[in-house]
Amino acid sequence: MRVTLAVMPWHLMTAPNGAAGVLAAALAPDHEVTTYYGSISFAEHLLGEAETAEEGTARARLLPEAYMYVAEEGFTGGIGEWLFTGALYGHRSFPDEASAACAAIGFDPDVAEQIFELAPAFADAAAQEIIAGRPEVVGFTTTFSQTIPALAVARRLRALDPDITIVFGGSNCDDTMGAALHRCFPEIDFVVRREGEAPLRSLLAALAEGDQGRPASIPGLCWRDADGTSRANPEGGALPSGAQFPPMDQSAYFERLEESPVADYIQPALMMESARGCWWGERHHCTFCGLSDLILPFRSKAPDRVVEELLAGIERHQVLDVLTTDNIVDKNYYETVFPTLEKSDLDLRVMYEIKSNITPEQARALRGAGVIQVQPGIENLHSLPLKLMRKGVTGANNVATLRELQEQSLTVLWNYLVGFPGETDGCYQEVITQIPLLYHLQPPLGAHRIALERFNPYFDHPDLGFAERRPRSWYRGVFPDLGEPDLNDVAYLFETPDQGVGGATLTGLKAAFDAWREAYATSALTHRAVAGRLHLYDRRAGRRAADHVLDEPAEVAAYAALGRGRSPEGLARHLSAGGWPVDAAWASAFIDDLTALGLVFRESGRAVTLSTGHDATAVRGTAIPTPAMVGAGT
Amino acid sequence: MIRDLPPVDLTSAAGVAAARGRPDVRVLEVSLADLASGTAVPRGKQEPLTWLRVRPTGAELDGGPWPGDDALGALPAAGVVGLTLEAPALPRAPWLIAFLVRATSFQLPLEWGGPVADLPCGLLFHLAPPAFGDEVAGKWRAAHRYGQCYWRRGPGFAAVQDLREDPGAHFVIHEPGLLALFHRLADPVEVADLGADDRAHLRDLLDARLAVELGGVAVGLPYRLRRWPAPVIDF
């Protein structure tokens, strides 16, 4: 069949769309597949307007950075969806609620209004462009804020050509969400839910063969029976194994970008998929995590395959930056993929999500491989909220992770989450008072109250504390014709009464983080072992510069042992087992001495050291200038 | 018992020198030849933090030998926290530039300076700036920022990012002959020694401002980006 995969705004256009890349590769052997990058087209559309606009007007600011701002920051407020409601429903004026939502994230409502006004013409053009390719099937991927834009184009396609088969898929189509979209939007013929390769292949085979009976048996598929009634097959078909994941086809994206004026504004990265699911979540689903149980089983690609695909993509597209879609990196890769990449001596920049709780060797392996940006899922620095989250890590060890990553000069992207039923104010005060000790480590991007999302254990089990919930208010605005039951089914993000600590604590936390951000660039706490002694150099902002030295071998050994969070008893046991016969009193006194000098972080009875190996070549706190406008040349 | 020591300034030669009688820091006077041969500093993990004072002889100022990647790259692990280039005159320009490119690549703190007004500083301010000198030296220091002109190694290509000017430029050097010359220019090359093809390639690099030719000797300008800042993005 002739299939067009449509990637609509607000896909983050700095890399190929993962879903489209996987599906294109999965379908290519049997079908003629093209990919329409509506994200790039829309950004071009906006850029075209900006270039002819009068200087200083809102229209003049419709640059790719405006597109990226909506794509990166707009999801939880439904901004991207709001911006296409005019295109879908024919509304003429930009709703006040949408304006307010834009202002709330620091996006100028005047610029937003321009986008809102331009979206309908763009949707017309998009539909025309897709139709011109004469596809028999058009598949829309919907994740984050792509649903309304996709519906806007789907509606136009349906009007232009009643015979085209329209399929929706993607994260916004999982579970009841996809079934609700199917019920409520007749322009959608089929919805494919969960991992799409197998059901989509089956569906296309059925369409090609004219097999009317097959849709009823494709796992998870939403289809219409002879009466036009929407039917939703139970989900839960077999999940593909790592060996079955097709390699992501990136060429459609790079070809499209190459010919685009938008290319001058962005630095594209490769998109890689090396695993699906989560090996931690399979056993203990983190309570705030919105990954559905059905796709939690962890499956990863074999290490040599990962390396091979990575290097092939880098060579083919001549790009050295790599994003990964993995929810968590396969632990195996620390000893396989990463050492192999290190040997290649390429200057890669790879981004991965990892489990917090990594060893120094693992941190070294990341750096050697060029995995210089990680999301370690830290979330909190106190063991009680972490336990409530089922993260499987202590606060002290999260600090150890921040320290190990800092030692390797890796960029750490992390957030601080609050609002867990059962947490106490103490969990936060204990941390707030010690934040100045952490000034030399990377601060979190922000502190947020946790949001209830579909598929969280909190969502599935109201008895855990979030019994009252309703869809975020913007869903009603972007789906004005849906009744409450359908809205409840279609929503992914929910509002709940606040749980856990109050607003004052959250405010205090944010203020402490603001100070941390200010202090980071000028702060360091380093050590150097010289002739068996450990020397420490404290240059953290807000403290007097101080040098310390540990002379005694037992102290040096104890300091090393406190690289992992330990209680005094635990420290004494560990040292005694290692040939240093000390008792808990000694250990306690030593930890207190370190505490007096601000050299340890303490929580839940454990202490952990903070210093990193002295490295005069570390580049701190000054991000590489990002090209605002870079021309391409060879 | 944890002892306190007066805090040492590890960011300058003067700071390290001022910390006397300590086992953890020292200043070492080394020759350029020793630096180039990799024998300037004992390579141990428990060596003191060391500031190197390098005094090139007159002959060395004129043509080296200067340390290559291996020699410079080994210094941080051996405890070197900075290097001062002490000379009565500036080294011959192409060699100075090659050295600055390497030092910037390894992000080794470097103290150097002198009369730079005769150098094409408009092409050089992405490199480790002079700590002292004339008015132009001051402008170089003010304009300098990490990440303004660098390259990254890919399989069979070098990706160059040049943000010295606005708008910036991004190049992918993949043609084998051009790529080979680009790599060769990590050290100064006598233009007279180049064949016709290489001269054409050199012309391309000069036009793109990725190399400079001074007194018949050419040298490359972008440094290999080995250290990403932490964080790589702005907060």
From TrEMBL, chain A:
Q: Which GO molecular-function terms appear in the entry?
A: catalytic activity; cobalamin binding; iron-sulfur cluster binding; metal ion binding
**UniProt key word Transmembrane helix:** no
Q: Span of the secretion signal? A: 1-19
Q: Where is the B12-binding domain?
A: 78-214
InterPro entries in the record: BchE-like (IPR051198), Cobalamin-bd (IPR006158), Elp3/MiaA/NifB-like_rSAM (IPR006638), rSAM (IPR007197), rSAM_horseshoe (IPR023404), rSAM_ocin_1 (IPR023984), rSAM_sf (IPR058240)
This protein's GO cellular component annotations are: cytosol
CC cofactor:
[4Fe-4S] cluster
Q: Which Pfam families match?
A: B12-binding (PF02310), Radical_SAM (PF04055)
Report whether Iron shows up as a keyword of the record: yes
NCBIfam families reported for this sequence = rSAM_ocin_1
Q: Which organism is it from?
A: Actinomadura litoris
**Keywords, A to Z?**
Iron, Iron-sulfur, Metal-binding, S-adenosyl-L-methionine, Signal
Entry protein name: RiPP maturation radical SAM protein 1
What SUPFAM superfamilies does its record include? Radical SAM enzymes (SSF102114)
From TrEMBL, chain B:
- Pfam family of the protein (one): DUF5825
Top-rank taxon of the source lineage equals Bacteria
Please report the name of this protein according to its UniProt entry.
Answer: Uncharacterized protein
From what organism does this protein derive? Actinomadura litoris
